[in-house]
Amino acid sequence: MAAAVAPGALGALQASRTRLAAACCAPLSSRWRLPGSFTGPQVGWATWVRGWMPAVWGATLWRGYSSELKTEDELRVRYLEEENRGIVVLGINRAYAKNSFSKNLVKMLSKAVDALKSDKKVRTVIVRSEVPGIFCAANLPVPTIAAIDGLALGGGLELALACDIRVAASSAKMGLVETKLAIIPGGGGTQRLPRAIGMSLAKELIFSARVLDGQEAKAVGLISHVLEQNQEGDAAYRKALDLAREFLPQGPVAMRVAKLAINQGMEVDLVTGLAIEEACYAQTIPTKDRLEGLLAFKEKRSPRYKGE
C-alpha cells in the first residue's frame, strides 16, 4: 500500500534533517530544573543533585544530601589496563553512610563525569559499589553499565536507570520505595522506569514501593542479565566487565554516535528518529576509523581504531 505524502512534506523533512544534523554534532544539554519547579531557571546537574537527590538507601531515605565530609576516597575512579584498557570503573565508597550522597561525593562525581566526557580513550564506564552488598551515571557519551551486586533502592536504582545497561546478582534487591516515606522518586525514577519497563508496570512498582530481586527484575525487563552471586560478592561486576570487553573492539566514534542516535530517537516519532539516525550516520563517514575498518576487513586482520 503506497503512503501519501503531502506537498512540501519532503522538503520540510529535509530541512528538519539539516537542523537535526546540527543538533547531533552539538554536545547534549544536561540542564535541570530545581525540585518542585517546572518553570524556573535551569541549573547544572551537580546543582540539581544538591537540591534534591534521594539517598542510595541506608536505614531510611533522606531528602537532600549528607553534609558529612570524610577523608576516605568516596569515589574511586579506576582506569583498567592491558586487555581491559579503555574500561573505567566508578566505585562509590561511603560505607559509613551506606553510599548516600555527600557534598564531596557530588563534587567528585561531577569532576569525574566531566573528565570522562572529554577522554577519547574511554570506551565503556562501569558503575559499581565498593561497599559490599550496596549499589550506588550521568550523561556520558560512552556506554555505561550498572553492576548491581546488592541493594539498589531509591536513589541507587535511579543511578542504575541512568545507565545504558543494568546487570544484577540474583540476590540483589532493587526498587523505587520513596512512596513509603510520602515522597516520590526525585532522581529521574518516574521518567526512566516507565521507559524501561512500560508505564503500567512502572506505576504498579512505584505505587506499591515493591522491592524486586534479581530474577524478578530480569522478568520485567528492568535488567538485562541476572547472575547467581559468587563467594566474592561481585558476580554482577564480573558480568559487566565481560560486556565491557565485548564493546572494546568496536569503533569508538561509532559507539558514541550509536548511543546518541538511540537516545534521541527514542524520544521522537519514527520519521524524526530515522532522520536523527541518518544525521548521526553521516558523522561516521569522514572518520579515519571507518577507513581503518574497511582496510582491516580487506586485509583480514583486527582493526586498530583510534577514535578519530
Briefly summarize what is shown.
The chain is an alpha/beta fold and 308 residues long. The protein is 41% helix and 14% strand. The protein has a 6-stranded mixed β-sheet, with helices on both faces.
Task: List key phrases describing it.
308 residues, single chain, 11 helices, 14% strand, 11 strands, 41% helix
Tell me about this structure.
The structure is a single chain. The chain is α/β, with parallel strands linked by helices. It is 41% helix and 14% strand. The protein is built from 11 helices and 11 strands. The strands form 3 sheets. Strands 3-4-5-6-8-11 form a 6-stranded mixed beta sheet, sandwiched between helices. Strands 7-9-10 form a 3-stranded mixed beta sheet. Helix 1 crosses helix 10, helix 4 (155-161) crosses helix 5 and helix 5 (189-197) packs across helix 6. Mean pLDDT is 77; it is low at 1-71.
